[in-house]
Amino acid sequence: MAVKSDIEIAREAKKKPIMEIGAKLGIPAEHLLPYGHDKAKVSQDFIASLADRPDGKLILVTAINPTPAGEGKTTTTVGLGDGLNRIGRKAVVCIREASLGPNFGMKGGAAGGGYAQVVPMEDMNLHFTGDFHAITSAHNLLAAMIDNHIYWGNALDIDQRRIVWRRVMDMNDRALRDIVVSLGGVANGFPRQTGFDITVASEVMAILCLSRDLADLQKRLGDIVVAYRRDRSPVYCRDLKADGAMTVLLKDAMQPNLVQTLENNPAFVHGGPFANIAHGCNSVIATRTALKLGEFVVTEAGFGADLGAEKFFDIKCRKAGLKPAAAVIVATVRAMKMNGGVAKADLGAENVDAVRKGCPNLGRHIANVKSFGVPVVVAINHFHSDTEAEIAAVKAYVAEQGAEAILCRHWAQGSAGIEDLARKVVQLAEGGASHFAPIYPDEMPLFQKIETIAKRIYHADEVLADKSIRDQLKAWEAAGYGHFPICMAKTQYSFSTDPNLRGAPTGHSVPVREVRLSAGAGFVVVICGEIMTMPGLPSVPAAETIRIGESGFVEGLF
Protein backbone atom coordinates (compact mmCIF):
# COMPACT_ATOMS: atom_id res chain seq x y z
CA MET A 1 0.00 0.00 0.00
CA ALA A 2 1.34 3.44 -0.95
CA VAL A 3 2.33 5.64 1.98
CA LYS A 4 0.51 8.97 1.97
CA SER A 5 2.61 12.13 1.84
CA ASP A 6 2.55 14.62 4.70
CA ILE A 7 0.56 17.08 2.64
CA GLU A 8 -2.03 14.40 1.70
CA ILE A 9 -2.47 13.49 5.37
CA ALA A 10 -2.75 17.16 6.35
CA ARG A 11 -5.36 17.79 3.66
CA GLU A 12 -7.54 14.98 5.01
CA ALA A 13 -7.46 16.42 8.55
CA LYS A 14 -10.84 16.89 10.23
CA LYS A 15 -10.11 20.33 11.61
CA LYS A 16 -12.28 21.98 14.22
CA PRO A 17 -13.14 25.70 14.09
CA ILE A 18 -10.33 27.63 15.78
CA MET A 19 -12.80 29.08 18.30
CA GLU A 20 -13.36 25.52 19.60
CA ILE A 21 -9.62 25.00 19.99
CA GLY A 22 -9.40 28.27 21.90
CA ALA A 23 -12.31 27.23 24.10
CA LYS A 24 -10.40 24.05 25.10
CA LEU A 25 -7.79 26.38 26.62
CA GLY A 26 -10.36 28.72 28.13
CA ILE A 27 -9.72 31.55 25.66
CA PRO A 28 -12.97 33.53 25.10
CA ALA A 29 -13.95 34.02 21.45
CA GLU A 30 -13.67 37.82 21.75
CA HIS A 31 -9.97 37.42 22.56
CA LEU A 32 -9.25 35.45 19.37
CA LEU A 33 -8.50 37.37 16.17
CA PRO A 34 -9.38 34.81 13.46
CA TYR A 35 -7.42 34.42 10.24
CA GLY A 36 -9.96 32.31 8.38
CA HIS A 37 -11.55 29.35 10.19
CA ASP A 38 -8.47 27.43 11.30
CA LYS A 39 -5.99 29.93 12.75
CA ALA A 40 -6.21 32.93 15.06
CA LYS A 41 -4.12 35.34 17.08
CA VAL A 42 -4.55 35.64 20.85
CA SER A 43 -5.08 39.19 22.15
CA GLN A 44 -2.54 41.00 24.32
CA ASP A 45 -5.30 41.89 26.82
CA PHE A 46 -6.13 38.23 27.41
CA ILE A 47 -2.45 37.34 27.78
CA ALA A 48 -1.99 40.14 30.34
CA SER A 49 -4.95 38.78 32.35
CA LEU A 50 -3.13 35.46 32.90
CA ALA A 51 -0.21 36.93 34.87
CA ASP A 52 -1.23 35.58 38.29
CA ARG A 53 -1.93 32.02 37.15
CA PRO A 54 0.59 29.27 38.06
CA ASP A 55 2.80 27.87 35.31
CA GLY A 56 2.57 24.38 33.85
CA LYS A 57 5.58 22.12 33.24
CA LEU A 58 7.89 23.09 30.37
CA ILE A 59 9.24 20.21 28.24
CA LEU A 60 12.03 20.81 25.71
CA VAL A 61 12.36 18.61 22.62
CA THR A 62 15.80 18.73 21.03
CA ALA A 63 17.81 16.31 18.88
CA ILE A 64 21.10 14.90 17.72
CA ASN A 65 22.95 16.79 14.94
CA PRO A 66 20.80 16.67 11.79
CA THR A 67 21.75 14.27 9.01
CA PRO A 68 20.31 13.64 5.53
CA ALA A 69 18.77 10.51 7.08
CA GLY A 70 16.25 12.65 8.97
CA GLU A 71 15.55 12.95 12.70
CA GLY A 72 11.99 14.29 13.11
CA LYS A 73 12.26 16.80 15.96
CA THR A 74 9.14 18.82 15.12
CA THR A 75 7.23 15.60 14.38
CA THR A 76 8.16 14.32 17.84
CA THR A 77 7.27 17.65 19.48
CA VAL A 78 3.79 17.53 17.94
CA GLY A 79 3.40 13.79 18.61
CA LEU A 80 4.38 14.22 22.27
CA GLY A 81 1.84 17.03 22.70
CA ASP A 82 -0.85 14.74 21.28
CA GLY A 83 0.42 11.83 23.39
CA LEU A 84 0.21 13.81 26.62
CA ASN A 85 -3.36 14.82 25.78
CA ARG A 86 -4.15 11.18 24.96
CA ILE A 87 -3.11 10.03 28.46
CA GLY A 88 -5.31 12.69 30.04
CA ARG A 89 -2.88 15.55 30.59
CA LYS A 90 -3.71 19.03 29.30
CA ALA A 91 -0.83 19.79 26.93
CA VAL A 92 -0.04 22.62 24.51
CA VAL A 93 2.50 22.49 21.67
CA CYS A 94 4.74 25.53 20.98
CA ILE A 95 6.80 25.57 17.76
CA ARG A 96 8.35 28.10 15.41
CA GLU A 97 7.00 29.49 12.16
CA ALA A 98 8.56 28.38 8.88
CA SER A 99 10.79 30.59 6.74
CA LEU A 100 10.14 30.80 3.00
CA GLY A 101 13.88 30.51 2.28
CA PRO A 102 14.36 26.86 3.30
CA ASN A 103 10.87 25.91 2.09
CA PHE A 104 11.85 26.87 -1.44
CA GLY A 105 15.45 25.76 -0.92
CA MET A 106 16.12 22.29 0.44
CA LYS A 107 14.74 21.88 3.98
CA GLY A 108 11.03 21.66 3.21
CA GLY A 109 8.25 22.54 5.60
CA ALA A 110 8.26 22.81 9.36
CA ALA A 111 4.90 21.56 10.63
CA GLY A 112 5.77 17.99 11.66
CA GLY A 113 5.07 14.93 9.55
CA GLY A 114 2.96 11.82 9.05
CA TYR A 115 0.19 11.62 11.66
CA ALA A 116 1.97 14.08 14.00
CA GLN A 117 1.42 17.39 12.25
CA VAL A 118 0.15 20.88 12.93
CA VAL A 119 -2.43 22.18 10.46
CA PRO A 120 -3.14 24.11 8.21
CA MET A 121 0.17 22.89 6.82
CA GLU A 122 0.22 24.85 3.54
CA ASP A 123 -0.56 28.14 5.27
CA MET A 124 2.05 27.56 7.98
CA ASN A 125 4.74 26.93 5.41
CA LEU A 126 3.87 29.91 3.21
CA HIS A 127 2.59 33.32 4.38
CA PHE A 128 0.69 32.10 7.49
CA THR A 129 -0.56 35.21 9.37
CA GLY A 130 2.02 37.57 7.87
CA ASP A 131 4.34 37.75 10.89
CA PHE A 132 7.54 37.34 8.86
CA HIS A 133 6.43 40.00 6.38
CA ALA A 134 5.80 42.41 9.27
CA ILE A 135 9.26 41.69 10.70
CA THR A 136 10.84 42.19 7.27
CA SER A 137 8.99 45.50 6.81
CA ALA A 138 9.90 46.80 10.28
CA HIS A 139 13.55 45.88 9.79
CA ASN A 140 13.76 47.53 6.37
CA LEU A 141 11.89 50.63 7.56
CA LEU A 142 14.79 51.22 9.94
CA ALA A 143 17.31 50.65 7.14
CA ALA A 144 15.48 53.17 4.93
CA MET A 145 15.39 55.73 7.75
CA ILE A 146 19.16 55.46 8.26
CA ASP A 147 19.93 56.26 4.61
CA ASN A 148 17.24 58.93 4.53
CA HIS A 149 18.67 60.61 7.64
CA ILE A 150 22.10 60.80 5.99
CA TYR A 151 20.60 62.13 2.74
CA TRP A 152 18.90 65.01 4.56
CA GLY A 153 22.02 66.30 6.29
CA ASN A 154 23.10 63.61 8.78
CA ALA A 155 22.32 65.54 11.97
CA LEU A 156 23.38 62.52 14.05
CA ASP A 157 26.85 62.59 12.44
CA ILE A 158 26.64 58.90 11.41
CA ASP A 159 29.90 57.54 9.99
CA GLN A 160 28.73 55.93 6.74
CA ARG A 161 31.61 53.46 6.94
CA ARG A 162 30.30 52.18 10.26
CA ILE A 163 26.63 51.51 9.53
CA VAL A 164 26.00 48.02 10.93
CA TRP A 165 22.27 47.68 10.13
CA ARG A 166 21.83 45.63 6.95
CA ARG A 167 18.59 44.82 5.13
CA VAL A 168 16.65 41.54 5.20
CA MET A 169 14.32 39.43 3.09
CA ASP A 170 12.64 36.07 3.76
CA MET A 171 14.31 34.17 0.93
CA ASN A 172 17.63 32.47 0.25
CA ASP A 173 19.48 34.77 -2.17
CA ARG A 174 23.29 34.67 -2.21
CA ALA A 175 23.44 37.53 -4.75
CA LEU A 176 22.37 39.96 -2.02
CA ARG A 177 24.98 39.05 0.60
CA ASP A 178 27.33 41.87 -0.35
CA ILE A 179 26.03 44.80 -2.41
CA VAL A 180 26.49 48.51 -3.10
CA VAL A 181 23.48 50.83 -2.71
CA SER A 182 22.62 54.42 -3.73
CA LEU A 183 24.31 54.33 -7.13
CA GLY A 184 22.96 56.59 -9.87
CA GLY A 185 23.78 60.13 -8.81
CA VAL A 186 23.04 62.76 -6.19
CA ALA A 187 19.29 62.16 -6.05
CA ASN A 188 19.81 58.57 -4.83
CA GLY A 189 22.00 59.41 -1.83
CA PHE A 190 25.54 58.43 -0.92
CA PRO A 191 26.88 55.13 -2.30
CA ARG A 192 28.03 52.62 0.30
CA GLN A 193 28.62 48.91 0.74
CA THR A 194 26.00 46.87 2.62
CA GLY A 195 24.08 43.60 2.20
CA PHE A 196 21.06 41.48 3.05
CA ASP A 197 20.52 38.81 5.70
CA ILE A 198 17.61 36.37 5.73
CA THR A 199 14.67 37.61 7.85
CA VAL A 200 15.10 34.85 10.43
CA ALA A 201 18.57 36.27 11.21
CA SER A 202 17.16 39.76 11.81
CA GLU A 203 17.61 41.26 15.25
CA VAL A 204 13.96 42.34 14.95
CA MET A 205 13.01 38.65 14.78
CA ALA A 206 15.05 37.93 17.91
CA ILE A 207 13.55 40.95 19.69
CA LEU A 208 9.97 39.94 18.87
CA CYS A 209 10.69 36.42 20.13
CA LEU A 210 12.18 37.63 23.43
CA SER A 211 9.82 40.53 24.25
CA ARG A 212 7.22 40.23 27.03
CA ASP A 213 4.72 42.75 25.62
CA LEU A 214 4.43 45.75 23.29
CA ALA A 215 6.12 48.15 25.75
CA ASP A 216 9.08 45.78 26.12
CA LEU A 217 9.13 45.36 22.32
CA GLN A 218 9.39 49.11 21.71
CA LYS A 219 12.12 49.54 24.33
CA ARG A 220 14.17 46.74 22.81
CA LEU A 221 13.71 48.13 19.28
CA GLY A 222 14.90 51.51 20.55
CA ASP A 223 18.02 49.84 22.00
CA ILE A 224 19.18 48.52 18.59
CA VAL A 225 22.62 49.88 17.64
CA VAL A 226 22.40 50.81 13.95
CA ALA A 227 25.70 52.63 13.37
CA TYR A 228 28.62 54.44 14.97
CA ARG A 229 29.89 58.02 14.74
CA ARG A 230 33.48 58.95 13.94
CA ASP A 231 34.23 59.04 17.66
CA ARG A 232 32.94 55.43 17.83
CA SER A 233 29.91 56.38 19.95
CA PRO A 234 26.81 54.31 19.08
CA VAL A 235 23.74 55.53 17.19
CA TYR A 236 20.54 53.85 18.38
CA CYS A 237 17.28 53.13 16.62
CA ARG A 238 15.53 55.55 19.01
CA ASP A 239 17.91 58.33 17.89
CA LEU A 240 16.34 58.01 14.43
CA LYS A 241 12.84 57.95 16.00
CA ALA A 242 12.09 54.68 14.18
CA ASP A 243 11.10 52.56 17.20
CA GLY A 244 7.48 53.78 17.38
CA ALA A 245 6.66 53.10 13.74
CA MET A 246 8.42 49.72 13.88
CA THR A 247 6.29 48.76 16.90
CA VAL A 248 3.15 49.74 14.99
CA LEU A 249 4.19 47.45 12.13
CA LEU A 250 4.78 44.62 14.62
CA LYS A 251 1.63 45.13 16.71
CA ASP A 252 -0.30 42.17 15.28
CA ALA A 253 2.80 40.04 14.71
CA MET A 254 3.49 40.24 18.45
CA GLN A 255 0.27 38.29 19.18
CA PRO A 256 0.82 34.48 19.26
CA ASN A 257 -0.80 32.32 16.56
CA LEU A 258 -3.14 29.53 17.70
CA VAL A 259 -3.66 26.50 15.42
CA GLN A 260 -4.28 22.78 16.00
CA THR A 261 -2.71 19.36 15.57
CA LEU A 262 -4.25 16.62 13.43
CA GLU A 263 -5.84 15.36 16.66
CA ASN A 264 -7.39 18.78 17.35
CA ASN A 265 -5.10 19.68 20.23
CA PRO A 266 -3.96 23.31 20.65
CA ALA A 267 -0.64 24.52 19.24
CA PHE A 268 1.00 27.94 19.31
CA VAL A 269 3.15 28.65 16.24
CA HIS A 270 4.96 31.94 16.71
CA GLY A 271 8.33 33.43 15.81
CA GLY A 272 11.07 31.74 13.84
CA PRO A 273 14.74 32.57 14.45
CA PHE A 274 17.05 29.96 12.88
CA ALA A 275 19.15 28.00 15.37
CA ASN A 276 22.37 28.05 13.34
CA ILE A 277 22.43 31.85 12.82
CA ALA A 278 20.07 33.04 15.58
CA HIS A 279 18.68 31.69 18.87
CA GLY A 280 16.35 29.07 17.39
CA CYS A 281 13.31 29.15 19.72
CA ASN A 282 9.67 30.13 19.36
CA SER A 283 8.54 33.36 21.07
CA VAL A 284 8.70 33.90 24.82
CA ILE A 285 5.18 35.36 24.75
CA ALA A 286 3.75 32.19 23.15
CA THR A 287 5.62 29.90 25.57
CA ARG A 288 4.63 31.92 28.65
CA THR A 289 1.00 32.09 27.49
CA ALA A 290 0.91 28.32 26.94
CA LEU A 291 2.39 27.73 30.40
CA LYS A 292 -0.51 29.68 31.93
CA LEU A 293 -3.09 27.69 29.94
CA GLY A 294 -1.74 24.12 29.95
CA GLU A 295 -0.54 21.52 32.43
CA PHE A 296 2.35 20.67 30.11
CA VAL A 297 3.95 22.76 27.35
CA VAL A 298 6.00 20.92 24.72
CA THR A 299 8.38 23.15 22.79
CA GLU A 300 11.36 22.58 20.52
CA ALA A 301 14.75 24.16 19.98
CA GLY A 302 16.25 24.21 16.51
CA PHE A 303 18.65 21.65 15.02
CA GLY A 304 20.87 19.59 17.36
CA ALA A 305 21.13 20.15 21.10
CA ASP A 306 24.59 21.75 20.68
CA LEU A 307 22.86 24.72 19.00
CA GLY A 308 19.16 24.67 19.85
CA ALA A 309 19.15 23.38 23.42
CA GLU A 310 22.20 25.42 24.45
CA LYS A 311 20.58 28.63 23.22
CA PHE A 312 17.19 27.67 24.66
CA PHE A 313 18.81 27.24 28.07
CA ASP A 314 21.42 30.00 27.99
CA ILE A 315 19.43 32.69 26.15
CA LYS A 316 15.66 32.08 26.20
CA CYS A 317 15.30 30.52 29.66
CA ARG A 318 17.79 32.98 31.18
CA LYS A 319 16.03 36.01 29.66
CA ALA A 320 12.46 34.84 30.32
CA GLY A 321 12.97 33.23 33.72
CA LEU A 322 11.85 29.81 32.44
CA LYS A 323 12.72 26.56 34.20
CA PRO A 324 12.38 23.44 32.00
CA ALA A 325 11.18 20.33 33.85
CA ALA A 326 12.52 17.73 31.38
CA ALA A 327 14.15 17.37 27.97
CA VAL A 328 13.61 14.89 25.13
CA ILE A 329 16.46 14.17 22.69
CA VAL A 330 15.23 12.83 19.34
CA ALA A 331 17.37 10.30 17.51
CA THR A 332 16.85 7.75 14.74
CA VAL A 333 18.50 4.43 14.03
CA ARG A 334 19.17 5.70 10.49
CA ALA A 335 21.02 8.77 11.79
CA MET A 336 23.09 6.64 14.16
CA LYS A 337 24.16 4.52 11.18
CA MET A 338 25.03 7.64 9.20
CA ASN A 339 27.12 8.96 12.09
CA GLY A 340 28.74 5.52 12.09
CA GLY A 341 29.89 5.97 8.50
CA VAL A 342 27.09 4.36 6.45
CA ALA A 343 26.16 6.09 3.16
CA LYS A 344 22.59 7.32 2.77
CA ALA A 345 21.90 4.79 -0.01
CA ASP A 346 22.82 1.90 2.34
CA LEU A 347 20.76 2.92 5.38
CA GLY A 348 18.04 0.33 4.69
CA ALA A 349 20.34 -2.61 5.43
CA GLU A 350 20.82 -3.77 9.03
CA ASN A 351 24.17 -2.68 10.48
CA VAL A 352 24.30 -2.94 14.26
CA ASP A 353 28.02 -2.14 14.40
CA ALA A 354 27.47 1.14 12.56
CA VAL A 355 24.64 2.00 14.97
CA ARG A 356 26.98 1.47 17.93
CA LYS A 357 29.76 3.42 16.20
CA GLY A 358 27.40 6.38 15.60
CA CYS A 359 25.92 6.50 19.09
CA PRO A 360 28.62 8.74 20.67
CA ASN A 361 26.99 11.73 18.92
CA LEU A 362 23.83 10.97 20.90
CA GLY A 363 25.84 10.29 24.04
CA ARG A 364 27.47 13.70 23.94
CA HIS A 365 24.09 15.43 23.56
CA ILE A 366 22.76 13.48 26.57
CA ALA A 367 25.71 14.57 28.71
CA ASN A 368 25.44 18.17 27.50
CA VAL A 369 21.75 18.49 28.34
CA LYS A 370 22.30 16.85 31.73
CA SER A 371 25.02 19.45 32.43
CA PHE A 372 22.27 22.08 32.58
CA GLY A 373 20.61 20.12 35.40
CA VAL A 374 17.67 18.94 33.29
CA PRO A 375 16.56 15.26 33.30
CA VAL A 376 16.69 13.59 29.87
CA VAL A 377 14.86 10.88 27.94
CA VAL A 378 15.70 9.77 24.38
CA ALA A 379 12.94 9.36 21.78
CA ILE A 380 13.84 6.89 19.02
CA ASN A 381 11.76 8.16 16.09
CA HIS A 382 10.83 4.90 14.35
CA PHE A 383 11.43 4.19 10.65
CA HIS A 384 10.01 1.05 8.97
CA SER A 385 13.51 -0.14 8.05
CA ASP A 386 14.70 -0.22 11.71
CA THR A 387 15.44 -3.73 12.99
CA GLU A 388 14.95 -5.07 16.52
CA ALA A 389 18.72 -5.54 16.93
CA GLU A 390 19.46 -1.95 15.88
CA ILE A 391 16.81 -0.52 18.21
CA ALA A 392 18.15 -2.68 21.05
CA ALA A 393 21.67 -1.35 20.41
CA VAL A 394 20.51 2.26 20.79
CA LYS A 395 18.54 1.44 23.95
CA ALA A 396 21.53 -0.35 25.47
CA TYR A 397 23.88 2.53 24.67
CA VAL A 398 21.51 5.12 26.16
CA ALA A 399 21.12 3.01 29.31
CA GLU A 400 24.92 3.09 29.69
CA GLN A 401 24.66 6.91 29.67
CA GLY A 402 22.24 6.83 32.60
CA ALA A 403 19.12 7.58 30.56
CA GLU A 404 16.27 5.69 28.88
CA ALA A 405 15.50 5.41 25.16
CA ILE A 406 11.87 4.85 24.15
CA LEU A 407 10.72 3.73 20.70
CA CYS A 408 8.11 6.12 19.29
CA ARG A 409 5.77 5.40 16.33
CA HIS A 410 3.91 8.72 16.23
CA TRP A 411 4.71 9.36 12.54
CA ALA A 412 2.66 6.29 11.55
CA GLN A 413 0.24 6.01 14.49
CA GLY A 414 -0.20 9.52 15.89
CA SER A 415 -0.63 9.82 19.67
CA ALA A 416 -1.21 6.06 20.06
CA GLY A 417 2.41 5.47 19.05
CA ILE A 418 3.98 7.77 21.63
CA GLU A 419 2.12 6.99 24.87
CA ASP A 420 5.18 5.39 26.49
CA LEU A 421 7.24 8.53 25.95
CA ALA A 422 4.41 10.73 27.24
CA ARG A 423 4.23 8.72 30.49
CA LYS A 424 8.01 8.89 30.94
CA VAL A 425 8.00 12.66 30.39
CA VAL A 426 5.28 13.07 33.04
CA GLN A 427 7.33 10.93 35.43
CA LEU A 428 10.48 13.02 34.88
CA ALA A 429 8.68 16.36 34.98
CA GLU A 430 6.73 15.60 38.14
CA GLY A 431 9.64 13.85 39.86
CA GLY A 432 11.32 17.13 40.81
CA ALA A 433 14.66 16.06 39.31
CA SER A 434 15.22 19.29 37.36
CA HIS A 435 17.80 21.64 38.86
CA PHE A 436 18.16 23.87 35.82
CA ALA A 437 20.95 26.44 35.58
CA PRO A 438 22.70 28.04 32.56
CA ILE A 439 26.29 26.88 32.05
CA TYR A 440 27.84 30.33 32.51
CA PRO A 441 26.96 33.31 34.73
CA ASP A 442 25.97 36.75 33.42
CA GLU A 443 29.11 38.38 34.87
CA MET A 444 31.59 36.12 33.01
CA PRO A 445 33.59 38.07 30.33
CA LEU A 446 32.24 37.69 26.78
CA PHE A 447 35.23 35.83 25.32
CA GLN A 448 35.23 33.46 28.29
CA LYS A 449 31.54 32.72 27.61
CA ILE A 450 32.43 31.81 24.01
CA GLU A 451 35.20 29.53 25.29
CA THR A 452 32.83 27.91 27.81
CA ILE A 453 30.35 26.98 25.07
CA ALA A 454 33.09 25.82 22.69
CA LYS A 455 34.83 23.64 25.28
CA ARG A 456 31.91 22.33 27.36
CA ILE A 457 29.30 21.88 24.60
CA TYR A 458 31.35 21.43 21.39
CA HIS A 459 34.33 19.75 23.17
CA ALA A 460 36.75 21.98 21.23
CA ASP A 461 40.33 22.52 22.37
CA GLU A 462 40.39 26.26 21.70
CA VAL A 463 38.66 29.29 20.23
CA LEU A 464 40.55 31.12 17.47
CA ALA A 465 39.86 34.86 17.28
CA ASP A 466 41.86 37.80 15.91
CA LYS A 467 42.92 40.63 18.21
CA SER A 468 40.34 42.87 16.51
CA ILE A 469 37.54 40.54 17.60
CA ARG A 470 38.83 40.31 21.18
CA ASP A 471 39.18 44.09 21.30
CA GLN A 472 35.63 44.50 20.01
CA LEU A 473 34.30 42.24 22.77
CA LYS A 474 36.23 44.24 25.38
CA ALA A 475 34.82 47.49 23.97
CA TRP A 476 31.27 46.13 24.30
CA GLU A 477 32.03 45.13 27.88
CA ALA A 478 33.23 48.65 28.59
CA ALA A 479 30.00 49.99 27.04
CA GLY A 480 27.89 47.95 29.46
CA TYR A 481 27.08 44.87 27.36
CA GLY A 482 29.34 42.40 29.18
CA HIS A 483 26.40 40.69 30.93
CA PHE A 484 24.90 39.59 27.58
CA PRO A 485 24.69 35.87 26.73
CA ILE A 486 26.34 34.50 23.57
CA CYS A 487 24.47 33.39 20.43
CA MET A 488 26.77 31.12 18.44
CA ALA A 489 26.30 31.06 14.65
CA LYS A 490 27.80 27.84 13.33
CA THR A 491 26.97 24.81 11.23
CA GLN A 492 24.20 22.59 12.57
CA TYR A 493 25.70 19.41 11.11
CA SER A 494 28.58 18.92 13.54
CA PHE A 495 29.78 19.71 17.04
CA SER A 496 32.68 21.38 15.23
CA THR A 497 32.57 24.16 12.65
CA ASP A 498 33.26 21.59 9.89
CA PRO A 499 29.88 20.30 8.60
CA ASN A 500 31.49 17.06 7.43
CA LEU A 501 32.87 16.10 10.86
CA ARG A 502 30.16 13.80 12.24
CA GLY A 503 30.02 11.78 15.44
CA ALA A 504 31.59 13.24 18.59
CA PRO A 505 34.80 14.93 17.42
CA THR A 506 37.52 16.16 19.78
CA GLY A 507 40.74 18.06 19.20
CA HIS A 508 39.12 20.66 16.96
CA SER A 509 39.18 24.48 17.10
CA VAL A 510 36.37 27.01 16.80
CA PRO A 511 37.38 29.91 14.51
CA VAL A 512 35.43 33.14 15.12
CA ARG A 513 35.05 35.12 11.90
CA GLU A 514 32.91 38.01 13.12
CA VAL A 515 30.98 39.24 16.16
CA ARG A 516 27.77 41.30 16.04
CA LEU A 517 26.12 43.18 18.89
CA SER A 518 22.35 42.63 19.20
CA ALA A 519 21.78 45.29 21.83
CA GLY A 520 17.99 45.19 21.53
CA ALA A 521 17.69 41.41 21.66
CA GLY A 522 20.24 41.34 24.44
CA PHE A 523 22.94 39.00 23.15
CA VAL A 524 26.19 38.93 21.16
CA VAL A 525 26.17 36.93 17.91
CA VAL A 526 29.42 35.04 17.28
CA ILE A 527 29.80 33.94 13.65
CA CYS A 528 32.02 30.86 13.27
CA GLY A 529 33.54 29.09 10.30
CA GLU A 530 31.72 29.33 6.98
CA ILE A 531 28.23 29.96 8.33
CA MET A 532 26.20 32.47 6.28
CA THR A 533 23.50 34.82 7.60
CA MET A 534 22.08 34.88 4.05
CA PRO A 535 21.88 31.30 2.71
CA GLY A 536 21.85 30.43 -0.98
CA LEU A 537 19.54 28.11 -2.89
CA PRO A 538 20.84 24.61 -3.77
CA SER A 539 21.55 23.51 -7.35
CA VAL A 540 18.05 22.04 -7.56
CA PRO A 541 15.79 24.20 -5.34
CA ALA A 542 12.61 22.72 -3.90
CA ALA A 543 10.84 25.62 -5.63
CA GLU A 544 11.21 23.78 -8.95
CA THR A 545 8.63 21.17 -7.88
CA ILE A 546 6.18 23.40 -5.99
CA ARG A 547 3.07 24.28 -7.97
CA ILE A 548 -0.72 24.51 -7.99
CA GLY A 549 -2.05 21.10 -9.08
CA GLU A 550 -5.05 20.40 -11.30
CA SER A 551 -7.21 20.08 -8.17
CA GLY A 552 -6.31 23.63 -7.18
CA PHE A 553 -4.24 22.51 -4.17
CA VAL A 554 -0.58 23.29 -3.49
CA GLU A 555 1.73 20.42 -4.47
CA GLY A 556 5.43 19.78 -3.82
CA LEU A 557 5.80 21.39 -0.39
CA PHE A 558 6.64 17.88 0.86
Q: What is the number of strand segments? A: 25
> From the alpha-carbon coordinates, what is the Rg to the nearest angstrom?
23 Å
Biggest sheet statistics: 12 strands, mixed
Task: Give the N-terminus to C-terminus distance in angstroms.
Answer: 19 Å
Just give the CATH class of the largest domain: Alpha Beta
What would the CATH topology of the largest domain be? Rossmann fold
Average pLDDT over all residues: 94
- Give helix % range: 25-40%
Could you name the ranges where pLDDT drops below 50 across 5 or more consecutive residues?
A: none
Coarse shape: globular
Overall tally of domains = 3
Question: Helical stretch count?
Answer: 19
- The share of residues in extended strands comes to 15-25%
CATH architecture of the largest domain: 3-Layer(aba) Sandwich
Q: What is the name of the CATH superfamily of the largest domain?
A: P-loop containing nucleotide triphosphate hydrolases
| Helix-and-strand structural type | alpha/beta
